[in-house]
Design a protein that fits this description.
Blueprint (H helix, E strand, L loop, with lengths): L7 H15 L9 E5 L2 H7 L10 E2 L11 E5 L12 H4 E6 L5 E7 L10 H14 L6 E5 L2 H6 L7 H10 L4 H4 L5 E3 L7 H11 L4 E4 L3 E6 L2 H23 L9 H11 L11
Parallel strand pairs: 7-8
Antiparallel strand pairs: 1-3, 1-6, 2-5, 3-4, 4-5, 6-9, 8-9
Bound molecules: 1,3-dihydroxyacetonephosphate and zinc ion (ZN).
The site of zinc ion has 7 residues, from loops.
Length: 274
């Protein structure tokens, strides 16, 4: 029988943890990752699942995710350790039918629970599942240094952040056409920040948490990781430009319109200075 950890979706999950760590986005236990499993994937691991653990409250309610299974990193676990010991650092969590409680059915062998940001992950999953007719399955939270640095100097506004990142590389508006949402500083780990983030996920696939990190969402692991990578590279260029006394020239506003036309992207016009 194939081991859970050998399955392709588990391997891809582990790869993101590893790559993100190598990028420097996951100091200590920083950051977390979750994946909404398909019915086929659940069936393929069913024999390995242990239903004995008791239900625990999620801390919010996600009725549209009732009965679903998630592969998710453990709270306090280090991304650096996921590849060498997946069964002790990640888990499969099953939700009850009302979407109010979860139980760990695989993994976290020496104990533990899913990430403290599970409420935000699940509320984002619920919104994305509905908006994309089930296509989006990945939610990723990381602590990339340049994005965090920018939250100390740019206004904490969706338009200001989006426009700045769009300017930093011609491909950025193509990759992040709807834009980037910004959550002001809040205490992490609870329902309040989950509600604030999921509101932004109605409009965007990327939300920045001021002075903390980033949440990204996508259909698969490659797409979601690429979003984080693109945003962080844009932020790195921005930090370099600011360190060199700021912009002396940039992409003209008409340039964004021409780009949207030629690349056939639905660029968020509200974030242009027309
Ligand atoms: P967890 O270890 O609970 O996943 O928390 C890490 C983190 O980044 C909190 O925002
Ligand atoms: Zn965090």
């Amino acid at each position: 029988m194939t081991k859970v950890t050998d399955l392709p979706f588990v391997q891809s999950f582990i790869e993101v943890c590893e790559e993100g760590y190598r990028k420097g986005w996951h100091e200590r236990n920083g950051g977390n990752l979750s994946y909404r499993m398909t019915a086929e994937e659940v069936a393929s691991v069913q024999a390995e699942l242990n239903e004995e653990q008791s239900w625990q409250p999620i801390g919010t309610e996600v009725p549209k995710l009732g009965g679903e299974y998630f592969l998710v990193t453990g709270s306090g676990k280090y991304m650096r350790n996921v590849k060498k010991d997946p069964e002790n650092n990640i888990c499969i969590a099953k939700l009850d039918e009302p979407g109010e409680n979860f139980k760990v059915v695989w993994g976290l062998k020496s104990g533990g629970r899913p990430t403290s940001e599970f409420p935000t992950h699940l509320m984002n999953h619920e919104i994305k599942k509905e908006l994309t007719q089930g296509k989006f399955r990945v939610i990723y939270h990381a602590h990339p240094a340049n994005v965090i640095a920018l939250t100390f100097v740019l206004p904490l506004e969706d338009k200001a952040f989006t426009h700045e990142i769009w300017e930093m590389a011609t491909e950025n508006p193509v990759i992040i056409p709807r834009g980037i949402g910004v959550v002001p500083w809040m205490v992490p780990g609870g329902r309040e920040i989950a509600v604030a983030t999921s509101k932004l996920m109605h409009q965007y696939d990327v939300a920045i948490w001021a002075h903390h990190g980033v949440f990204c969402s996508g259909a698969d692991f490659d797409e979601t990781f690429a979003l984080m990578e693109t945003l962080e590279k844009g932020a790195e260029i921005c930090v370099k430009v600011h360190s060199m006394e700021g912009k002396r020239q940039t992409i003209p506003e008409q340039g964004f319109i021409d780009l949207a036309r030629d690349f056939k992207i639905d660029l968020n016009q509200d974030f242009l200075n027309l």
